[in-house]
Amino acid sequence: MRNKVVNYLLISVMFAFLVLGSTLLLTGCGPKNYDLSGISFNDATVNYDGTAKFIRLEGTLPEGLEVNYKYYTNETYETEATSTVDAGTYYVKANFTAAKGYNTPESLTAKLVINKIDFVNVNFVVTATNEDYETNAEAKLNSDGSFYFEANNKLYEKITVTNNKGFNQSVKFYKDEQHTIEAPAALQNFGQKVYAVVTLTNKNFNDATFDLEIRVERKTIELKSYEDLLIMYDHIHGKNPLDQTARLNIRYLLANDIDCADEQGNPRLWKSIAGLYSETIFFCSEFDGNDHTISNLKYNINSVDKDVAGSENGLFISFFGNASDCYIHNVTFSNISIEVKAGDFERVDHETWGAQNPLYAAVVVGRLESAMVDSNKPSTFIHDITVKNCDIRVDAFKMYVGAIIAKDQVTDSVTSTRDNLHVENCNIYAISTEYMDSMWVGGISGVTDQSTGYLYTNCSVKNLKIGFDYESYEAATTKAEKNKYISLVNEAIVGGFVGTIGTQVKFVNCTLDNYLIATTRKTGYYGSLSRKVEFENCSHTQSNPNWNEIKGVYNYTDKVDESELNWNDATYVKPEPKPAITQVSTNKEEYLVGEKIVVNVTAAKEDIDENNLHYLWVGLYRKGDFDANNGAGYLAYVYLYDNPNYTASPDGSDWWTKYRSLKNRTTFFLVGETTVDWGVTNATPETMAEAIPDQLDAGEYELVLINDGVGSYYAADRVEFSIVEE
C-alpha cells in the first residue's frame, strides 16, 4: 500500500515538472514586442524664429528601444529636408531600433508646420542722386515717420529705397496719397511730395506693403543777431536776390532772443521786407521764431524806399511788408515803435476812389495774402505770435493799421490758420486829416477780408489804447491844435480786435480785456462788418482802474466841433450805439402759405449820403443760397434807397423805375422805423418789386439787407423766416 502512494507522488511531481519545463521552453523560443501604449507622436505648429524646429515622441521609451527622426519636404517621405529652420510644412518619421530579442516597432509619423511671421523692426533708408550726379543725399526721418530732403535748389532724382533687413522688395512711386497716379522718383522744391509703396517678400515672412511719404522741406538758416535778421532782407532786396522759388525753400529759424538795440541802447531802424506792393516780390518763406523774442526796433518812412517805381500801390511799414504763401509762427515782438508823420510821403490820387497809395502799418505783417504762388494751393499760416509793449503813431491818408497785421486778405480759411495771436500793452494811434479817404484800425488786424469763413482761435488783446491820441488832444489848447489829433476821414473804423470785417468770421476762446477805444459800433471786437460774426466762449471788458484819467472820444463827426466831442470825466463808458442804418426784421418767424410778410427796416437819416452812388436793397433768398452763391441766386429784390438825382424815363421803360423806392419815396430811410409790406399773394409795384413771385412755397427763407448795388452783395443784416402749410 505504501509503495502505491509513493509511486503516485512521484508520478505527479514528474508530470508537473514536464508541464512547467515545456512552458519555459515555449516562452523563450522568439523575439519579444515592446509595449508602446505610453508613447505618442503628435503634430506641432510653431512660428518661425530663425532657429531649427523639431518634434519628439512624448512619453518614456521602454528600456533598450532607440529612436531617430527624419524630416521630409513631401508627404510621400521621399525628399529629406536638409534643415527645419525656414517656414513651411515638414513630414517627420520616428524610426525605432529594437534591442536584441525584441521586435522593431513600426515607424511613427507626424507633421511639423513652421508658420511665417510678420515683418518687424524694418527700417527704410531713402537716398537720391543730386542733379550734379556727384553726391548721394540721404533723406532724414521725421517724427511722424515721413522722410524729407532739405531743399537746396537742385533736383533730387533717382530716389531709391532700401531696407535694413536685406529683404526682397519692389518699389513704386505715386503722385497722390491714394496711389492712383504713378510718378517719377524725383523731387526738387519745398512742398513737393512723392509716395512710395514698398512691398517686401520673404519665404519666412508674410508679404507686407509699407507706405512711405517722401517730401522736400525748407532749408534752415539760423538767425542769431540783428545782422542775421538782415539776411532775410538781402535775399529779396540785395545785390544777388533769390528768386521766388528759392525763397519758398527757406526756413529762417531764430536760434535765440535778439535784442536789436545799438551800443547806446537805442532801437535800430528796421527795413521792411518787401515794403512795396508787387505781384512777384513778397515774403513767402517760413519764419520760425522758435519761441524767442525780437526786441527794440523802430519803423518809420525810412523803412521803405518810397521813391521807387510802384510806390503808388502803397507802402508797407512792418517787419514783413508784403507777404503771401508764408508761414510765420512762434515769435514775440517787444518794444517796437512805428511812427509816420503827415507829409512823410506824397499822396497819389486815383480818379475814382481817392488815395491810391495807402499806408499799411503793423508790427509783424503789412499785407498778408495767399495763392500768389499757386492759386490751386493757397497756404498762409500765422500762429503763436505775441506783440507787446508797442507804440504805433501814424498820420497819413488812407491806411490799414494793426498791431500784428495791417490788412489780412487770405483766400482760404482752411489753409490760413490764425491761432494764439496776442497783443499786450500797446498804443495804436492812427489819425488822418484827409476827408475823402478811409482808415481801418484794429488791435490785431486793421482789416480781415477773404472769400471764405475766417476763424480766430485762442487769441487775446489786453491793455490796449487805440484810436486817437488822447493825451496829445487833451494837452492841446486851441481848436486847431486839437484837430491834429482827431481823425477827419470820411470813414474811420476802429475795433479792439479788427477794424473792419468783410467776411464771415468766428471767434473761439478769445478775450479782449482792459481796452480804451475811440469809437466802436457793434462790439469791442470789431468796428464794422459786412458779414456774419459768431462768438464762442469769448469775453471782453473795458474797465481798467489805471486808466481812469484817460478820456474817451466817441460820437465824433466829420466836421469837428469841440461841443460835439462827448467826453467822460471818469472811466470810459461805452456809449449807447446810434440807430443802425442796416437793420432788417420781420413781424413773425413763421408764416402760412399765402400770408403777408411784413418787413421792418430801421435807419438813421443823417447816416445816409444822398449823393452816394451805392444803394441799399433787400433780397429774398431761400435759406443758405446767399452764402452758397456769394450773394447771387436771389428770388427777388427791391431797392430801398435810390440816387435822388436820377430821373427816370418818362415812359417808364427804364428798369430803374420798376424797382424805385417803395411807396413813391425818393429817399426811403427816415429816422425811426419804417414798415414795408410785402404781399405774397397780391404783388404790386407800389408795395414790392415786380420780381417777387405770386406765392412762395413752404420752406425756409431769409431776407438779406444788402449794402451796395446788385452784384456786389455785401450783407449788412439778415433775418430768417419759414413758410409752412396749414
Structural overview:
With 726 residues, this protein is mainly beta. Helices cover 9% and strands 40% of the residues. Strands 14, 15, 16, 17, 18, 21, 26, 29, 33, 37 and 40 form an eleven-stranded parallel β-sheet that branches. Mean pLDDT is 77; it is low at 13-27, 543-581, 603-614 and 641-693.
Provide key terms for this protein.
single chain, 726 residues, mainly beta, 11-stranded parallel sheet, 6-stranded parallel sheet
Structure summarized in a few sentences:
The protein is mainly β. Helix content is 9%, strand content 40%.
Q: What's the β-strand tally?
A: 48
Q: Mean pLDDT, as a whole number?
A: 77
Low-confidence stretches: 13-27, 543-581, 603-614, 641-693
Helical content (DSSP H or I, runs of 4+): under 10%
Structural class: mainly beta
Question: What characteristic shape results from the CA principal axes?
Answer: elongated
Radius of gyration: 44 Å
Largest sheet: 11 strands, parallel
Ends apart, CA distance between termini: 142 Å
Q: How large is the count of helical segments?
A: 7
How much strand?
35-45%
Write the layout of secondary structure elements.
Layout (H helix, E strand, L loop, with lengths): L1 H26 L16 E4 L18 E7 L15 E10 L10 E8 L8 E7 L5 E3 L1 E2 L5 E4 L5 E8 L4 E7 L11 E2 L5 E10 L2 E13 L1 E5 L2 H12 L6 H5 L1 E5 L3 E2 L8 E2 L16 E14 L15 E3 L2 E5 L2 E14 L8 E2 L3 E2 L3 E4 L2 E5 L11 E16 L2 E4 L2 E4 L9 E15 L5 E5 L2 E4 L5 E4 L2 E8 L2 H6 L3 H5 L7 E5 L2 E4 L3 E4 L2 E7 L8 E4 L3 E4 L2 E2 L42 E4 L3 E3 L4 E7 L12 E7 L2 H4 L7 E4 L15 H4 L13 E7 L20 E9 L7 E10 L2
Parallel strand pairs: 1-4, 8-13, 14-15, 15-18, 16-18, 17-18, 18-21, 19-24, 20-25, 21-26, 24-27, 25-28, 26-29, 27-30, 28-31, 29-33, 30-34, 31-35, 32-36, 33-37, 35-38, 36-39, 37-40, 42-48
Antiparallel strand pairs: 2-3, 3-4, 5-6, 5-9, 7-8, 9-11, 10-12, 12-13, 22-23, 41-43, 43-46, 44-45, 44-47, 47-48
